[in-house]
Amino acid sequence: MNQSPLLPVRNVAKPWGRDLLPAPFRAPAGERVGEIWFEPPAALDSLLVKYIFTSEALSVQVHPSDAQTLAKGLGKQGKEECWLVIDAEPGAVLGIGFHDPIESEALRAAAIDGSIEQAMVWHPVQAGDFFYIPANTVHAIGAGVSLIEVQQNSDITYRLYDYGRPRELHLDEGIAVSRAEPYAAHWHRQVPERGEVTLVEGPLFRLDRIDGPAGETIRPHYADGPLLVIPRSEGVSVNGIDLAVGACALAPAIDAVAVSGGALALLAKGL
């Protein structure tokens, strides 16, 4: 019998999460689930995949790069991430970057007095919006957003502003690594409903959306090592085991992945 390729799931309760999740997810009774994590497998432990569901805005935060964490003696713990919006309520936004460049001391003052909210650019979003978030980019996820996050497997987050909530801020560490400038437009795109699309080509990981079996442009990139498979519709399997929407699975290589015509899936691997 084939061993299940499915990654273990962890529901993460958050005060800004939801007690009513979009299908096919269900929150345990009495819990507000903000994140659903898929435990990174030993064969591909450099990436972490999450679903994120918000009912309130998340904190304004920033992550360091691998070079910055190595310089501090923390090992390779940088965090770059990307977001694919799968659902958004009317008026939902993502805060990424600033209208104008801000010097460090001005950024500190803005974080303390709350004017950092007005200084940031809040991008209206809908299903299909995709954003890559390089390390050092100041960002925040607004309320009413459901998204898939693929990230470097690191838990280092520096919180700059939290709307008056009584949680710890990390102003010294966060400002030291913040690139307080406008967000580059090329990091954002609208993913079409159909078709094969390369979303991230490195330098830290690769992410593709396939429509049916992987084509010859994408397939060779996943031929020689493990990859993560995130089904976006029925008709996706790994090692002959069908994957439900809302799951994430490990495949030893692309040959173990079957995607029927018309089915959609995300493929991800570390580089």
Folded structure, characterized:
This protein is mainly beta and 271 residues long. The protein has four helices and 20 strands. It has helices at residues 66-71, 104-113, 116-119, 171-177, and strands at residues 9-18, 33-38, 47-53, 60-62, 81-88, 93-98, 120-124, 129-133, 139-141, 145-152, 158-161, 188-190, 197-201, 205-211, 227-231, 236-238, 241-243, 249-251, 257-259, 264-270. The strands form five sheets. It has a seven-stranded antiparallel sheet with strand order 1-2-3-10-5-8-12, with no helix packed on it. A five-stranded antiparallel sheet has the order 13-14-20-15-18, with no helix packed on it. Strands 7-6-9 form a three-stranded antiparallel sheet. The chain starts with 8 loop residues before the first strand and ends with a strand.
